[in-house]
Design goal:
Distance between the termini: 32 Å
Number of strands: 0
Shape: globular
Number of helices: 10
Largest sheet: none
Structural class: mainly alpha
Order of helices and strands: HHHHHHHHHH
Radius of gyration: 17 Å
């Protein structure tokens, strides 16, 4: 790595740390006080997102988790609600993905909804749970949980959660390219 690239990478890490610290100080000051710069340096990019961007990303992650159930929907109102929550392009890209086995049967049972009006909130809550599960237990996860309250980490291995987050990021990138 050249000295210029190394300096650029260090600058980006400092900017990420500062953005995460600023966000946590504004939304979860008690949790932010427990973190040091090294912990902030381990924070994922999504912790620095604006409220609106984080809400959208959480919905996308939730949709990746719920994709097997979404593929079964035939109710036009539920599909319209998913389209409104995710955007047409993201939803179509998600539905075009090959089927993968459900993560955990008890997880899919917990993700049921009664009305189409619940779709956005369900996807956001599921995605927030996955995002929190993608972090290692400790102070950073606790700070993120304070930021995303009342969400709680879903019971799944961190590697599974990270794979879901990565898949959502890939679908969102495909969406923005298309």
């Amino acid at each position: 790595m050249s000295a210029l690239a190394s300096a650029d990478a260090a600058s980006q890490r400092r900017q990420l740390r500062a953005a995460v610290a600023q966000r946590l100080l504004a939304k979860a000051p008690a949790a932010a006080a427990a973190l040091d710069w090294d912990m902030l340096g381990q924070a994922p990019l999504w912790l620095a997102m604006s409220d609106a961007a984080l809400t959208q990303f959480a919905r996308q992650v939730g949709a990746v988790l719920c994709a097997p159930a979404l593929r079964l929907w035939i109710d036009a109102r539920r599909l319209a609600a998913a389209r409104a929550a995710l955007g047409e392009t993201f939803l179509q890209a998600l539905l075009a993905q090959p089927d993968v086995p459900a993560i955990e049967p008890q997880l899919s049972n917990a993700l049921r909804l009664d009305t189409p009006e619940q779709v956005g909130a369900l996807l956001q809550a599921a995605g927030a749970g996955v995002l929190l599960a993608s972090l290692p237990p400790g102070l950073l996860q606790a700070a993120a949980a304070a930021l995303m309250a009342p969400a709680a980490a879903l019971a799944m291995p961190a590697s599974t959660a990270q794979a879901l987050v990565s898949r959502a990021r890939q679908l969102a990138a495909t969406r923005s390219e298309g």
